[in-house]
Amino acid sequence: MKIISKISLVRIVLIVSVFFFGTSHAAAQQKGYNSDFILGKWTSQNGDRTIEFVKKEDKYSAVISASAEKSLIGKEQIKNLRWTGSSYAEGKLIMVRKGRELDCQVAIKDDNTIEISGKVGFISRTQTWKRVK
User: Chain-centre distance of CA 43, in angstroms?
Assistant: First the structure.
C-alpha cells in the first residue's frame, strides 16, 4: 500500500511541476523577455542569500554575492544555464556545502520574479527569487 501512495505522490508532483512550468513558459513568451533578462542580483524568498547572474559567452552563471554564511560569498551557485527562448535550462545548481550538482532550470514568473528549480532523478525543489532593485 505504501508503494502505491509513493507512486501517486510522485505523479502528483510531476503533474503540478509541469503545470507551473508550462504557465510560466507561456507567460515568458507572451511578455517577450530577452535572453539577458536574468542578469543582475536576485535574493532568495527567505532573504538569506543573494546571487548575481552573469553571462559567460552564451550561457549564464550565478555567484553568491551575499549570505548569512560569509564563507559562501563568491562561490558559484549556478552554472551553464542556456536560454531556450522563454526560460533557462540545462544548467547545474551547485550545492556548495555538500559539493553536489543538480540539474537546474529557471522560469520567469514576472518582471521581478524567477523560480529556480533543482532536480535529481524524480525529486525536485523550486525556490522563488526576487530581483534586487
Answer: 12
d(CA 47, CA 26) in angstroms, rounded, equals 28
pLDDT digits 0-9 by tens, 45-75: 999 999 999 999 999 999 999 999 999 999 9
Per DSSP, helices labelled H in the chain are 2-31
Contact 22, 75 (CB under 8 A): no
pLDDT at 82: 97
Report the relative pairing of strands 100-110 and 59-67 from DSSP bridges: unpaired
| 3-class SS of residue 23 | helix
Sign of the alpha-carbon dihedral angle for 21, 119, 78, 81: negative
Given a cut of 80, whether residue 121 has pLDDT beyond it is: yes
Identify the CATH number of the domain in which residue 73 sits.
Answer: 2.40.128.520
Structural domain of 92: 2-131
Percent of the chain with pLDDT over 90: 71
Which grid coordinates belong to 35?
535572453
Q: What single-letter amino acid sits at 17?
A: S
Domain count of the fold of the chain: 1
Give the chain's mean pLDDT: 85
